[in-house]
Write a structure and sequence with these properties.
The protein has five helices and four strands; from the N terminus they run H-H-E-E-E-H-H-E-H. By secondary structure, the protein is an alpha+beta fold. It has a single domain, classed as VSR Endonuclease (Endonuclease, Chain A), CATH 3.40.960. It has a four-stranded mixed β-sheet with strand order 1-2-3-4, sandwiched between helices. A hairpin with a 4-residue loop joins strand 2 and strand 3. The longest helix is centred in the last third of the chain and has 24 residues. The protein is globular, with a radius of gyration of 17 Å. The mean pLDDT is 89.
């Protein structure tokens, strides 16, 4: 017995609207980086994991992760749905394993990898400071 509140057609329509690019947290990060004068590229398909933002000159990539989908250790990320629990635990575990593989491949190739979590968007001032640190680190390294 399913506890879904939607019929299968409606559930399919709802899930089809779940985006992987152009999300609100991603747009927030883009706005903050642009405000700091940073230039970047979006979703480079030739890099492992197709990072959300790429700064080739700084050898810096950003991944913007949703806490639930990528299993962050915050309150939202550690929540597991009651319905179909085994599926969701396996799904998030696969996502985390994929994220680790992509980060390792990028690091091996000489890239600096920064993961920005959805919950970190709430404290914009702290995020801006973190971004400034990352950008200044890249300038020293050139």
């Amino acid at each position: 017995m399913t506890t879904d509140v939607f019929d299968p057609a409606k559930r399919s329509a709802v899930m089809a609207r779940v985006k992987s690019t152009g999300t609100t947290p991603e747009k927030t990060l883009r706005r903050l980086l642009t405000g700091l004068g940073a230039r970047y590229r979006l979703h480079r398909k030739d890099l492992p994991g197709s990072p959300d933002l790429v700064m080739p000159g700084r050898k810096l990539v950003f991944f913007v992760h949703g806490c639930f989908w990528h299993g962050h250790d915050c309150a939202r990320g550690s929540r597991v749905p009651k319905a179909n629990r085994d599926y969701w635990l396996a799904k998030v575990a696969r996502n985390k394993a994929r994220d680790e593989r992509n980060e390792a491949a990028l690091t091996t190739a000489g890239w600096r990898v920064e993961t920005i979590w959805e919950c970190q968007m709430k404290d914009e001032a702290a995020l801006v400071e973190r971004l400034k640190e990352n950008l200044s680190h890249g300038e020293r390294g050139l």
